[in-house]
Every structure is written in C-alpha cells, then in structure tokens.
Amino acid sequence: MPRIVFLGPPGVGKGTQATTLAQQLGVPHLSTGDLLRAAVAARTPLGLEAQGHMDAGRLVPDDLVLKILGERLAAPDAARGFLLDGFPRNLAQAERLAGITTIDLVLSFELPAKLLIERLAGRRVCPTCQSVYNIVTRPPKVEGKCDRDGTALVQRPDDRPEAITTRLAVYAEQTAPLLGFYRKSGLLRSIDAAGTPDEVAARVRNALH
Ligand code: AP5
Q: Which of 5, 22, 55, 161 could form a disulfide linkage to 157, CB 3.0–4.6 angstroms apart?
C-alpha cells in the first residue's frame, strides 16, 4: 500500500508526474490544489474563502486545507494508498498529517528557479477536464484548445508573474523546511526534475525501487 508525498516548488512538475504514477500504481492522486480549485469552481463556502489566498499565491489557512483533505483521505479508494501532491506545505501540516496516517516515502522534486518560472508562465489548463498543457513543452494539437474536449484553454490566475513571485517565496519560507523534517525521518528521496516528463518519470520509478 504505497503512501507517497510529492514535495517540490510550484511548477516543478509534481502534478504531471503524479497523474501518471497514480494510474500506474492504481492509487488516487490527491492534490490539495486540485481539491481547492474544485471548491472554488463550485463556489462552496470553503472555496470562496480559499480563492483570494490562492489567486495571490499565498497558502490557504491550514484548517481549511485539512478539512478538505481529511474528507478526501477518508474516502474508500484512499485505503489502498495514495499520492499526496501539494500537501503538506508547512511544518504544522506535516505534524497534523503524521497524526492522521503513516507516510512511506517522500519524493522531493528539484529544478532551478529559472526553469520553474518558464514552466509556470507557459502552463495552460482546460477548465472542463483539468488537463494540463504547456505552450512551449507540451502544446495542444490545436492552438489554445484542449485535445480531449476542444474547450478553450486558460491560464491559472496564480500563474501570472506577481503570484508566481509570491508562490516561490512562500515555498522557500514555509515548505522548504519540510525537506529537513523528512530527511531526518529517513523518508526523503531527491528527484532531478530537469528533462522531459518521460525522463523524470524514469527517475521516479528508480526511486520507488
Ligand atoms: P497547487 O495546485 O498545489 O500548486 P503548486 O504546488 O504551486 O504546484 P503547481 O500545480 O503550480 O505545479 P506542479 O509542480 O504540479 O507542476 P505541473 O505538473 O502542473 O497549489 C495552488 C495553490 O493552492 C497554492 O498556492 C495555495 O494557495 C493552495 N494550496 C494547495 N495546497 C495547499 C496546502 N497544502 N496548504 C495551503 N494552501 C495550499 O507542471 C507545470 C508546467 O510545466 C505545466 O505546464 C507542465 O505541462 C510543464 N511540465 C511538467 N513537467 C515538465 C517537464 N519535465 N518538462 C517540461 N515541462 C514540464
């Protein structure tokens, strides 16, 4: 039963890798960013409270994120294991997570800031099926349209330059200390996130074995 955490800065490719690996392992991909964006799109009270924080690139308050994640972790499919993407994001969340479940492995994805910014600035997403593209590295077949359903692709509000700057600073201040936390517990493996998605996926598979 694999219980894996994907850790890494914005734009490093966590979601891209987690989508593929979760299918291969037959476990759910639990992304707190995706769960929060779904709550924003559905205009739930939680989503409305989270939206301003997300659009500005700040972390959403811990209690809101824990509520949404706790509900998802309690679903039957998560009993088979899971890939946690984007959680925990600070020490308080890591301590709360340790009280809820055991983690077997933490993969830390690493990439220079210049490449992170390029990947984020080029990202486009489908608002219908949530597929992720990149105008430079993973363009859709027809410019500006989702390959799966033809919907016009959009840019995430937090992929605009001001929000990217804030997200990178928040990562350095609040999330990077988790590397030491998980290294001490012997769970951490580093993954070089440079290169194509297939090259990175091969490194992820090696780290699992
Ligand atoms: P979240 O959605 O988790 O965003 P993030 O961690 O900033 O990560 P991203 O989704 O931006 O990047 P990614 O690493 O998944 O990269 P991707 O695969 O898409 O969180 C958003 C917000 O929600 C937060 O800012 C916060 O407000 C809130 N939130 C979420 N969790 C929270 C928590 N626990 N606590 C509090 N608040 C929370 O790839 C990026 C681009 O690069 C894509 O275009 C992709 O096609 C491309 N790409 C991917 N891999 C490669 C490759 N190998 N080569 C070239 N291009 C590539």
A: 55
